[in-house]
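Support case: nicotinamide-adenine-dinucleotide complex. Customer-provided input:
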Amino acid sequence: MPTTTHHSTTTPVGEIPGIVQRVRQGATDGLLRTRDQREAQLRALRRFLVECEDELVTALRDDLGKPPIEAYSTEIGFTIGEIDHIVSKLARWMKPTRVKVPLKLRPGRARLVPQPLGTVLVIAPWNYPVQLVLAPLAAALAAGNTVVLKPSEVAPATAEVLARRLGDYLDPRLVAVVTGAVPETTALLEERFDHIFYTGNGTVGRVVMRAAAEHLTPVTLELGGKSPAIVTAPTDVEVAARRIAWGKFVNAGQTCVAPDHVLVDRELEAPLVGAIVAAVHRFYGDDPAASPDYARIVNERHHDRLVGLLDAGGFDEVALGGEHDRDQRYLAPTVLRGVAPDAAVMDGEIFGPILPVIAVDDLDAAIAHVNAGPAPLALYAFTDDEELQERVVAETSAGGVTLNHTLLHLAVDGLPFGGVGESGMGAYHGKAGFDVFTHHKPVLAKRLKPDPALLYPPYPKWKQRILRRAL
Ligand code: NAD
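Agent response - structure generated as follows:
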């Protein structure tokens, strides 16, 4: 699948402090204070996405074998949608909010003034290497921050396009791209930022949070986890199967909110597996390797890891797939049945096109299974019974939930997207993204007159009596 050779340049570590300093100067100079200034950058970012679409689509194909329609819908178009939403709401979000002043403090006016945090660092992973760099960037710019971006070296073609082309559109005093791997990110993390927005795995999340602690920098951590899909009667297994297969096999399973595994009522297991197999055949044909709509594994290391999960066994049956080709970084959509709790596939996020289907006695058992592990980033439940839906929502913890579908909660502008517990902290998208990068500064404005003596010492008994009653 990889066709083009990309000579991605790595930012020299010695240049990193100067780059951060340049972008920090942009914040100090207040170059993003007004709505016009922010909108100009957001519109330029939108232009970049429109005008560089072909380059981005090619890079995403080279990095992930991403089908063009997926490249558009989940990356380029998704980010354009996010920018359009932000631009349409920005005036309202930037307005200070009035807050009522209690009688005892009047006269006076209180308000919350949204203010940029300053200069922020966005560290992104490889699986959606456009969206996960540029959607946080849009939010940070909307809130008036200058930004250092660190795309993932694991998606080098996309990182190269971002590093080479973003500067043609965005003001270099406001946005910088640093490319590279651990040494470059480590050097960045030594610098002081006003916020760090990290998307990736929890191990590196801990590294980021530790480094941020040195400067008391707040962090948003967008992590992953084993997101379950529960299927319980009464339901329509065919629709459930189609929607689970779609959510699982888009981007070859390399999606942070992909259903990791299925927990299904025992009596529905066989029909569900049959329906998933049928759905995959309809989506990708008899040979998914030949389908233009099926992506590839990002690199050999991840390919080996996923094949290793299959080789380790711990399941009764490969109901579908299992074929792989290291040279092509291809792993077929794979469905496993009879998976033991201690199977390798059940130890950690799969992050690839392997779907274990686990039969459980009932919904109680499914909920207990979910609650026995760390809180996942997403949770899906397929049932027609609204009471059961509400039980799942109330009795489990997860970053976000879609009922009777997969992935889609993160496409709703008004729903913040983020994790809880092991799946992360903080959230973004829409207004939540603006708020992540904003300090809503409380301001109380008093007039100089009147200036009653009651507040000040000395405090004779009569004053104390009044003050105790007033407070
Ligand atoms: P990755 O390997 O690209 O790492 C992410 C970033 O961390 C990269 O920019 C990388 O350069 C940097 N990095 C790696 N090691 C580092 C170190 N030791 N010190 C400093 N920086 C370092 O991506 P990944 O972590 O493999 O991404 C996959 C994970 O991300 C999965 O767990 C997935 O669920 C999660 N994810 C979460 C979301 C979300 O929105 N919550 C989205 C996508 C992916």
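The first strand starts at residue 97 and ends at 99.

Case will auto-close in a few days if no follow-up is received.
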